[in-house]
């Protein structure tokens, strides 16, 4: 651990001193309030909910990727004992479609099936097995159509949707197209379909209300948007639909799918009874969105010293059947296509197209992960062609504050990319394995591997990545929070959903820091509260945390004003620290609890960052509020005969702005790296002819604890972003984006192979025999 990282966590510094971390407030490693409940199994997840008179739901899904629906016969299902309702597209009273950004996805397919797993009908019954049997009894006659599964064919194919096959096209143009470099390298890269693989069951409960409305209890990450979508489909006013957020096991985009929530509400409204749905793992794979599979073509121009001159790229995102978040993902991919490097001339074309593949959508680091793997592959090719050390080549080109992105936007936030890269480059390398190690599990393939230890080669690779923070292209980012204090106990009311990113812990720390109150509670979330927006792109650290801070400061003023008036001074001359209120001259000294005795104080505040703008017709515009950066050095051992790969170590340096909770921050970085290792080596949802081949976690290989490498956080750069509350930057997405590219770079170094596909297949890691 570097001196900077050690200081942030309270560990011994290089000079032998020890900086003790605070025990509460900002900078403390405060444990999550729900940690014990989750550990003991008493945390209220949606799958655990129950209500009097409960019915169970099941959804019939299409077995085909593309088909015309000739007829749907629900009579056999309706007549089964215990079945209370069957609904199809004919029973949707409001809007027949929903969608995250574009309303283009039917609640139930009516005339066409556009992807494997599309919802056809839903059933409510008095037992979950009865509901599933009834769903299976619905007779659907299909006319099977030829699916369009190659995104390159989507341009010439017949329209798969009334809105056409092209969702968005961005032709970014920056600089002089006639410029060329002395050295040119080209590459074709393919990124596979990664599933978010939610760690808890996707489930929900719908309860009808006396006013004819409905309440949805679900693990939503954006309850107000979910309410608005559902109300439109139910044909109800928004105030008659309420979304109550239950415990979220964790989310990286997989909790935003209305295809689970809307059928529940329809069944509850139809039966007048509470209805519950707990999706199986197969249903989860079929229902929710995945990471966009992407095809990328690149041409890099550089001078003889390795400095970039021009980047040309084509990026094609496979959106699957519906638009979802594809427009936003494409904007990120095109904007960051050159990476955190200075590129004087850039020409990037990006497309997002509909196919008959499963829908793609928001998964952490969308758009940025795919292009990072490609542009870092290009940097490795340049380094090899020029005979320059890969880390040195990158250092000659990295961005810094004040440089321009290819979108024309000036990087105004801290951008310590060179410092990050030097930190991981200079971090000591791990020991080399022996030819016949005692610990056989350290070999690629583990103790049962068939490889020869003499065939193992070690590789060292580098990658630098970037992501944007908050929404982009004119998204109105706003969050509202209320802070109440009564009898020395504070309560935070904010509709920011805790998805595992640590917002509830951060909210407690903010109030402790500002008000000096030890006991802080965060209220559960529902749509009776003002909106706080989705839990994506680190929004809640910035926007909702900023709203909590402003509300807490308003309460602080209410608390201090009477004291300041009594002693004839302004509130600015009083401070709160360690539970005490003191004046600058020491005349006033009292405890916070004494000052609050008998008082009930509260305040509501909003936080809205500075506005952004959409990209124009040439891909230009100030589209992003802020940026975050990361550098990773990967060490891998590769069996060059079998293609087995073991990631030995990932050294991480990250631009964090300010460390708010050291333990939580380290956990988030480690989780992000692990998710990225999965994208690099094992996670690929195969969909031949548009059909999900194995929708289960037996065949879809998530990285386990044995696959997780040693993760060394060697540097945390705390250069505060002046426009962000507390100066902090979100930390979860950028290590996900950067780590697959670093692993691929290390495999290239070990094998000499180009490695242009993620996840890396064994045949791509087998070294080519020498002459």
From TrEMBL:
Where does the Aldehyde oxidase/xanthine dehydrogenase a/b hammerhead domain lie? 40-146
Q: Name the InterPro entries for this protein.
A: Ald_Oxase/Xan_DH_a/b, Ald_Oxase/Xan_DH_a/b_sf, Ald_Oxase/xanthine_DH-like, AldOxase/xan_DH_MoCoBD1, AldOxase/xan_DH_MoCoBD2, AldOxase/xan_DH_Mopterin-bd_sf
Q: Where is this region: Disordered?
A: 1-35
A Pfam family it matches: Ald_Xan_dh_C
Question: Which protein, by its recorded name, is this?
Answer: Molybdopterin-dependent oxidoreductase
